[in-house]
Structure formats: structure tokens, C-alpha cells
Amino acid sequence: MTRLAIPKTYKLYIGGKFPRSESGRTYEVSTKDGRFLANASLASRKDARDAVVAARSAFAGWSSATGYNRGQVLYRIAELLEGRRDQFVDELSATEGLTKPAATAQVDTAIDAWVWYAGWADKYVQVAGNANAVSGPYFNLSTPEPTGVVAIIAPQSGNSLLGLASVIAPAILTGNTVVVVASESAPLAAVSLSEVLATSDVPGGVVNILTGSPAEIAPWLAGHADVNAIDLAGAGLLDWVDLQIIAADTLKRVLAPEDGAPPPSLERIVAFTETKTVWHTKSLI
């Protein structure tokens, strides 16, 4: 007997939950050769606002966690990705038209990126911070702290899973919370990653994932007054100069578009941190 096919409709990931778009809109996700795979939610402006609210609500708790604790959480994500490795390989093969070896290589590289960043979580402060030489009986110490809520346009042209790891991991390991606009043409990696996050130790709201049109969603996030920074890694095909101008109206820190998935780097880790400098009087006794 032939079974009836049940088309999947994937939802957004906001505040640790899986809501439908409030607009009720969806769009079709197809394989590289045009076969239907699933329906994905087409996020609206209200969805973007809800995601920012969730990210802001989660910021205090996440940013106050120790670096060691955040590192353990990131490592747990890598463990869960490893356990669902075959699923991600199949999804990347379908949505990006990759051979199985190429899809496997991308999944393995993405897992390695999570592990690499997890290892930096309790170490980057010692590298990025310092004791400053000053005149007088004072200690002068500088230390990096998280910027706040970071909006991210994930890489859009291939490497959808690796692209997500490359932009989400360095932002959250320092204590930021994020709102991510996934790859429009290949969103299944983001949807499956959200399922991994929901079953991991990541608190709800730390990572919020929107599927849909970056061209539609990005201006709303760039102009949102409660978004502190925006990563335009995957905005190369958008009018990203206009996005920079919109972001400047609310004094956001902006990272310009990159060609593909950004490689792991300390620069990525400190990109969305602010340096706090503290003066302390030396004991005269």
C-alpha cells in the first residue's frame, strides 16, 4: 500500500518555542533539482519584534553565566550535532545539491567550529582584556563584555549549516543573545539546528531563528532600537550600505558582509564586545 505523503511545515524558533509566523505565511523549500521538500515559515515584522523581545529577556541571565558554563553549553551543541550527523548530511545534500562526502565535510567542519569556539569561552577575556600602565597609585583594568542583542543575517550562498555555526557561536559565547535570519533557499539546516538548541542546555531566547526573506526582515532588525549590533555576514546580495545607514541611526555596531562562512577567529569573538575599563586605588598600607 502506498502511504500518503505528509508535507512538513517548519516553524520559527523564538524564545525557546516553535511558533508559526503570526502572518500565517509560508514558502516552499525545494531541492536543487526543483523537487518539493517542505514548507517554511515566512517571518514577518511582528515575528522579528517578538524575537528581539525574547533575546532581550534572555540577555541578563545568559550574560551573567560564567565563561566556563557558556563553553560547556556550546560543547553540548556540538555533541548533539554529532548525534544527528546523518540527518544534517541528508538535508544539506537535498537543499544544496551536495554529494554525500561534501555534505559530510560541511557537517564535520560545523561541529568542529562549535568545539573551537567552546574552547575560547573561558579564555578570550584573558587575551582581549589587559592591565593598563597608568600613572599614579591605581590599578587600571580593561575587560570585554557582551554588547547585547545581535541581529545576524546568516550566509545565504551555500554552506548553510557551517554558516550558522560561524556566526552564531562567536556571538553567544561572549554572552550576547541573537536573532538570526537563516538562509532563504536552504533553511532546513537552521530549522534542524533550532531543534538541537531546544533540546540542549541553551536557555530559551539566547538564539532565535527566523526563516524567510532577508531582504524583507533585515531593514526591520537594522532599525530596531533594542538591537545593539548587526552582523551582515550574509547580506552581500542585499543593499547592505542602506542597512548600515539604517543601523547608524540607532548607533549599532555593524559587521560588513563576508564571502561565505567566516572562518573561526578571535576577531569574530570580540567583534560584539564592549571594553569596560575599571580604575581601582592601590592600597597605601
From TrEMBL:
It comes from the Bacteria. Pfam families: Aldedh. Residues 27-234 form the Aldehyde dehydrogenase domain. Gene3D superfamilies: Aldehyde Dehydrogenase, Chain A, domain 1. One of its GO terms (molecular function) is oxidoreductase activity. Keywords: Oxidoreductase. InterPro entries: Ald_DH/histidinol_DH (IPR016161), Ald_DH_N (IPR016162), Aldehyde_DH_dom (IPR015590). This is Aldehyde dehydrogenase family protein.
